[in-house]
Amino acid sequence: MFSKLTRKWFILPLAIMAVASVLFAGCTSSQPTTSSPSPMTGLSLSGTIEIDGSSTVYPITEAVAEEFRKLHPQIRINVGISGTGGGFKRFVVGETQISDASRPIKDSEKEQAAKNKIEWIEMPVAYDGLSVMVNPQNTWVTSMTVAELKKIWEPNSTIKRWNQIRSEWPDQPINLYGPGTDSGTFDYFTETINGKEDASRPDYTASEDDNVLVQGIAGDRNALGYFGYAYYVENKDKLKLVAIDSGSGPVLPSEQTINDGTYKPLSRLIFIYANKAALTRPEVKEFVRFYMTEGPKLVSEVGYVQLPARFYTENLAKIQ
Amino acid sequence: MRNGLTFYRHLKKRKLKGNILSLIFLGSTMVGTLVLIVLIVDVLRDGVGWLDWQFLTSFPSRKPEEAGLLSALFGTLWVMTLTALFSFPIGIGTAIYLEEYAPDNRLKRFIQTNINNLAGVPSIVYGLLGLSLFVQALAMGRSVLAGALTLTLMSLPVIIIAAQEAIRSVPEAHRLGAFALGASRWQVVRNIVLPSALPGILTGTILAMSRAIGEAAPMIAISALVYLTFIPSNPLDRFTVLPIQIFNWVSRPQEDFQHLAAAGIIVLLVVLLSMNAAAIFLRNRYQKRTEE
Asked: Which residue among B4, B72, B195, B254 is buried most deeply as judged by most CB within 10 Å?
């Protein structure tokens, strides 16, 4: 009796899957995983491109891969979100052909690549602006200088109330919100504002999920926080932007000020890295070419800021 | 007369105490139930409008209205099926050995302590173990098989401990009776112990599978993928699972992706509940049969 029962127990999920596979078979065509570059060019390209890295760059790569698939349904593109460092770990051993990165490759990672005889090409693909945010009911703050931001966020900061920053601001507590220490945004902000990566005061509300920060700032009159510009764009009605003064007057972040470089110093380049050897495969080369020609249009659709056109033409020249 | 009055007063007091405590226990039961109800209502309100055929049959997309979780859904089904296939027999085998065969010596106590400790190891540790053992050392690649084996390692301690408890609760008299009739050790295990322990074993398996299906951390270590445009066709294919896809949607800035995440959670709950329903159905059927 027992054996009869176990047999059923094993068969049931298999049966469900078999039925479901048949049901879905019409929707997709499964391709072999092995890469088999076709000698022909154009529509008949096939193979697998493996991409991994920063979750910040992921939405752009996803958008490009999605559009690319419409033209080349035979090419499998797998995109992961191991993080910039995690992505480079796989890139420098040749496991991936392209790596998404929200910062330039580090020296230690270059050495690793050299050791494994992996040559690579760096290609900036978009700007990612960091924005400083307050609650819409905050009537006193319109701009801040970089020095004031540093005074608030540096490791031994004693700022607890708004009037400690500027005496005309109210005698109210200041509540801080920011990304957690694992975030690339945190690395970038601390390096740019506090002068040293990962150096920050610890007593603020931290979350790896920027949407949590949006909720926090939207519900707290005395809030001040920072996160990616894309999250501001989606929540304009709940937040108020702070203009940043880096010496030449306060500038609000916008597509234009990030693009022309006047919004300083809180906008950074984000990149993809391509394996040089893999670029000899026609499908990889075609994908990167597509990324540089069609990608720019998709960048703003997913919340980032396009680079000036010359960046993309330079990238195209690099892969020729 | 006076003594009688005191008696009734004390009785009343004791009964009142009893009632208060039963209210407190009811309250603690409600905490869990209410949280579950709130969670389900909240997720349903957020996601049910986004749950349609297109959502189930599409691959990931930057456009929320075109995005779906086909690859993640099938990845989860593949991984869970293989995990159940591996962990159920190995888990029961271990439990039978430890309870019915193993002599009570240092080695057994050593194994037992280790199994108990393994049940408390954080899941990401299993992910990293799976990455270095299955993906790299055994060269399985970042495949469905490597993911399933990793979740198997994670589920085993829970299944083993639950199965041991169930086997231990079978009355010794039943075993001795069978032995007295000349049954071998294996016949006793097969015909006496396992049939009455099976409901308990299935309960443990449900718990372990329910934990495994929701794991994102070890699966990110093994697979790392989110964007995948095919359904795994064999155990060595690349894959992604529902929790990774949900995790990615939750962290996107566009509000519509939050709804997609909620719809994804509904799908995950449905898969989980139907898995559990199948196990509970088998358990109840078996319980009835053993009672007959």
From this structure: B72
